[in-house]
Amino acid sequence: MSEQAAGSATETGDRTTTGDESTVVDSPPPLRVTDLEKHFGGITAVDGVSFDVHEGTLTGLIGPNGAGKSTAFDCITGVYTPDAGTVEFNGEDITGLEPFEICNRGLVRTFQIARELEKMTVLENLMLAPAGQRGESLWQSVTPIARRGVAAEERELRERVWETLEFFEIDHLAASYAGTLSGGQRKLLELSRALMTDPDVVLLDEPLAGVNPSLEKKLLERIHDLREEGYTFLLVEHDMDVIMTHCERVIVMHQGRKLAEGTPAEITSNERVIDAYLGGEV
Length: 282
What we know:
GO terms for molecular function: ATP binding. Residues 31-280 form the ABC transporter domain. The protein has helices spanning 3-7, 69-76, 99-104, 122-128, 138-142, 144-167, 183-195, 213-228, 240-246, 264-268, 271-276; strands at residues 9-12, 15-18, 24-26, 31-40, 43-53, 58-62, 84-89, 92-93, 107-109, 201-205, 232-236, 249-254, 257-262. By secondary structure, the protein is an alpha/beta fold. The chain has a domain at 29-114 and 201-209 and 220-276: Rossmann fold, CATH 3.40.50. The strands form 3 sheets. It has a 6-stranded mixed beta sheet, with helices on both faces. It has a 4-stranded antiparallel beta sheet with strand order 5-4-7-8, with helices on one face. The protein is globular and about 55 Å long.
């Protein structure tokens, strides 16, 4: 939903009603998770979890270590195949698809430990990210006319890469090998690389872990900038101040199950959450 539309509409479940009560517009969430389950032997890591992520929002997913957050991310993005339940993205059932197939549909993720290509430069990491590049084809690389098309595409791609590097303020690192970056710089690189795939929804797995306060502030600013451009985010983060300050909705997992869901104010006043996750303190 665009910023303008968001200001004139009220979400009601999966329906959006405008100021004109006679007009009701269907607005299914871009990401819907229903009764998701994942087992590892006798251990149930994710146990019947259901939630929606609505367009243009920053939704937080929290819970103690072992709550099943990262496993849920892995099931949503194809790293693991769920044992039960469904994942719908933009109205399509993507349950069990390969990670690259899910990414090509516009649902991408970052990892708690950044997975950059260490022996390639920052620039090269971003150049590789978009799928379907014509230069990957042998025929395109040997035919003169096709080569000109590939060269034009590469020029356009390089412009996009530089725009992205400048947006994240890491353009000065373009020629640096990814393996030489600091932890915070790697997080910026990973999010930059995710953005190069033209996603609709981005899943962030602890993007602020190991990031110094200066880079943390920069990363959060960029996430909010991207939301204003229409991107949607689902964020796993242990820093409760970040979650409660920056997210509109918060989903709480505990022992593989969804314990609660609501606004930050609702979550911080939820007795079950306080007892199970916050240790009796808000």
